[in-house]
Amino acid sequence: MSEYLYKRVLLKLSGEALMGEGRYGIDPEVTERLARQVKQLHDDGVQVGIVVGGGNIFRGLAGSANGMDRAQADYMGMLATVMNALALQDAFERLDAPCRVMSAIQMNEVCEPYIRRRAINHLQKGDIVIFAAGSGNPYFTTDTAAALRACEIGAECLLKATKVDGVYDKDPVSNPDAVRFDRITYHEVLVRGLQVMDSTAAALCQDNRMPIIVLNIEGEDNIKNALKGEPVGTVVVQ
Ligand code: UDP
Q: Which of 150, 151, 160, 220 is the most exposed place for a label (fewest CB within 10 A)?
């Protein structure tokens, strides 16, 4: 445990991280691989909270672009995150890792309601806690929910695991000359409009001095190495 720089962290997993090479839904192999990575941290004594997205199933913005009422579509997106949370919980339990799902929208038959003090208690007892249904409010994203939960549970950093290996000055997929930052300030992220996370989430982290580490989920030991202070991905700080 001593080799880790952080004792309690919040990991943001996008819905896309669960679908692997597919174009929709949940890939059980990918989910298991992710669960194994997190279980390793848990076994090493790191307290891990997870906010999972829902973009592999439904995004509110996509729904409203097709004419749906935005809030209605956002509730569908939040429900999608609950499905992902249950899939992840199942993967953890198959690995014998204790895991709770707490939802910002109450659905007591399938998971616990989100109660901040209870979440902290679960983490202290050694359970992995998955925060589902985002913030519970439409017009937000799971990035913002991740920033919010990270602050609420007293996480020491927010890890954003994505399909790219950090923050670039422009989109690295369409711009081969894009430059990756090892370290960048929240201010620069906001002013330059860099696509690390949405501006509400970045501003919340800035206001609360919550460090963000953006890294590629596909590297097997990336999360572990980042939490040990090794140069993985991009660190966003004050
Ligand atoms: N969502 C919401 N409020 C929240 C979090 C999420 O309304 O606090 C909805 C929103 O429609 C969003 C969807 O849930 O598009 C899925 O979340 P997100 O797009 O953040 O997932 P990700 O891109 O991380 O997979």
A: 220
Q: What angle do CA 63, 147, 142 make, to 5 degrees?
A: 20
Mutate to test the pocket of ligand 1, among 23, 72, 78 (most ligand atoms within 8 A of CB): 78
Percent of the chain with pLDDT over 90: 92
Cα-flanking dihedrals φ and ψ of residue 220, to 5°? -50, -45
Per-residue pLDDT tens digits for 102-121 = 999 999 999 999 999 999 99
Residue 116: phi, psi to the nearest 5?
Answer: -55, -50
> Pairing state of beta strands 234-237 and 183-185?
parallel
Whether 13 and 52 have beta carbons less than 8 Å apart is answered as yes
Provide φ and ψ at 68, rounded to 5°.
-70, 155
Cα–Cα distance, 118 to 5 (Å, whole number): 25
What share of the chain in percent tops pLDDT 70? 99
99-103 and 112-113 as β-strands: parallel, antiparallel, unpaired? parallel
Amino acid at 72: Q
Say what the pTM is: 0.97
Does 44 appear as a known binding residue? no
pLDDT on residue 2:
53
Has 142 been labeled as part of a binding site?
Answer: yes
CATH assignment, 8-237: 3.40.1160.10
Out of 11-20, 73-82, 89-98, least confident range: 11-20
* 43 belongs to an annotated ligand binding site: no
Q: Measured between alpha carbons, how far apart are the two ends of the chain, in Å?
A: 27
177 CA from centroid of ligand 1 (Å): 31
52 touches 82 (CB < 8 A): no
